[in-house]
Design goal:
6 helices; three-stranded antiparallel beta sheet; 163 residues; alpha+beta
């Protein structure tokens, strides 16, 4: 029975699984999006989110701890320069899994896993939500009075300039 066993072993030994997750995390940081199976993506999400959280604090100790997991100095540099700057104000949830369907060869469930702040589709076209304040019946009168007052100010400033 598997009671209390929460780690998905992905059909690999411990060393092989750590190497797989390290390589996938490096690819995710370098390319910002990778295509993989859903099981690997969920395991990678648990592996890479604490690494990105640690990258927010740019100290020598943090860099060494991240390098222990990634084993690639270019990925560590990319993480601390670009990725940490974009996720600085985000409290968590740095990755997104987008399911694609089944693979033709073995019907494995495929997905994209990507860094949330680097997706151009969601960030560039996203307009800030405009919240309209709930108004009562008297606000119509205030708006009309405000427009009349502005018109009077405009007329008063234009008249002396014209003379």
């Amino acid at each position: 029975m598997r009671h209390g066993r929460k780690v998905n072993h992905l059909g690999r030994t411990h060393e092989h699984r750590l190497a797989l997750l390290s390589n996938m995390a490096t690819s995710l940081i370098m390319h910002k999006r990778i295509k993989t199976t859903v099981a690997k993506a969920k395991a990678l999400q648990q592996y890479v989110d604490p690494i990105i959280t640690r990258s927010k604090d740019d100290t020598t100790h943090s860099r060494r701890m991240v390098f222990k997991y990634l084993q690639n100095k270019f990925a560590v540099t990319e993480l601390f320069r670009e990725v940490s700057a974009k996720v600085a104000d985000r409290p968590g949830g740095y990755t997104r899994i987008i399911k694609l369907g089944n693979r033709l060869g073995d019907a494995a469930e495929m997905c994209y896993i990507e860094l949330v702040d680097f997706n151009d589709v969601y960030t560039k076209n996203a307009k800030p939500a405009v919240t309209k304040k709930a108004s009562r019946r008297s606000s119509g009168k205030k708006a009309a009075k405000k427009e009349v007052a502005e018109a009077e100010v405009v007329e008063a400033t234009e008249t002396p300039a014209a003379e």
